[in-house]
Design brief:
The structure holds 2 protein chains of 2 kinds.
Chain A (H helix, E strand, L loop, with lengths): L2 E3 L3 E5 L4 E8 L7 E6 L6 E6 L2 E4 L4 E4 L5 E6 L8 E8 L6 E3 L3 E6 L1
Parallel strand pairs in A: 2-11
Antiparallel strand pairs in A: 1-3, 3-8, 4-5, 4-9, 6-7, 7-8, 9-10, 9-11
Chain B lengths: L4 E3 L2 E4 L5 E6 L6 E8 L3 E9 L2 E5 L6 E5 L5 E5 L8 E8 L8 E2 L3 E5 L1
Parallel strand pairs in B: 2-11
Antiparallel strand pairs in B: 1-3, 3-8, 4-5, 4-9, 5-6, 7-8, 9-10, 9-11
Classes of the chains: A mainly beta, B mainly beta.
């Protein structure tokens, strides 16, 4: 089964760029990589999804190398409101199961 | 607001009991997913239904079962409850595939005493 690994926590300051990396071994050919943001007592919220190379939307960028065994979520110019837990999610291709990383708690300081 | 609704918001029950959690997906979404979130296990995928049929199974215990009805709402049944089943249970929905963007509901917090 696929296993995903993320740093447990990260600290940053307002206005900085933050990069969170997720390692996912055994990612299957058809699997996509999705990142979610979660605030306390709320359900996770979609940030960005990709399959390979680079994807960018209005809030983040996602970098996926050619071997797809890792992905990096990049948050440009974070603010205090970006303090949250960030999860990567990949399908492991085995009967459609989904594997979440353990989450990275990002703390943004003024 | 994701458009996914879950009831009840909170549930307190005793060990050995049985409870049912309910989820209504976003309008137009055919797939429903159930997740369990606890402090020690993190977010765990339990099961997926697509248009009434079970599509994928994760780490769901035999004491737990789910179904999706013709109107596409879903229920998660938890029986013979144990203290360790205390957790947040999230429902999510997506248009179709397991790789589609999922929209999560607000969750049901289950406390087993």
């Amino acid at each position: 089964l696929a296993k995903t690994t993320q740093p447990i926590s990260m600290d940053s300051y307002e206005g900085q760029e933050v990069n969170i990396t997720c390692s996912h071994n055994n990612i299957a050919t058809n699997d996509y990589i999705t990142w979610y943001q979660q605030f306390p007592s709320q359900g996770p919220r979609f940030i960005i999804q990709g399959y390979k190379t680079k994807v960018t939307n209005e809030v983040a960028s996602l970098f996926i190398p050619a071997d797809r065994k890792s992905s990096t979520l990049s948050l440009p110019r974070v603010s205090l409101s970006d303090t949250a837990v960030y999860y990567c999610l990949v399908g492991d291709g085995q009967g459609g199961k989904l594997i979440f990383g353990q989450g990275t708690e990002l703390s943004v300081k003024p | 607001d994701s458009g996914v609704t879950q009831t009840p918001k909170h549930l307190i029950t005793a060990t050995g009991q049985r409870v049912t959690l309910r989820c209504s997906p976003r309008s137009g979404d055919l797939s429903v997913y159930w997740y369990q979130q606890s402090l020690d296990q993190g977010l765990q995928f339990l099961i997926q239904y697509y248009n009434g049929e079970e599509r994928a199974k994760g780490n769901i215990l035999e004491r737990f079962s789910a179904q999706q009805f013709p109107d596409l709402h879903s229920e998660l049944n938890l029986s013979s409850l144990e203290l360790g089943d205390s957790a947040l249970y999230f429902c999510a929905s997506s248009v179709r595939r397991i790789t589609d963007t999922q929209y999560f509901g607000p969750g049901t917090r289950l406390t087993v005493l």
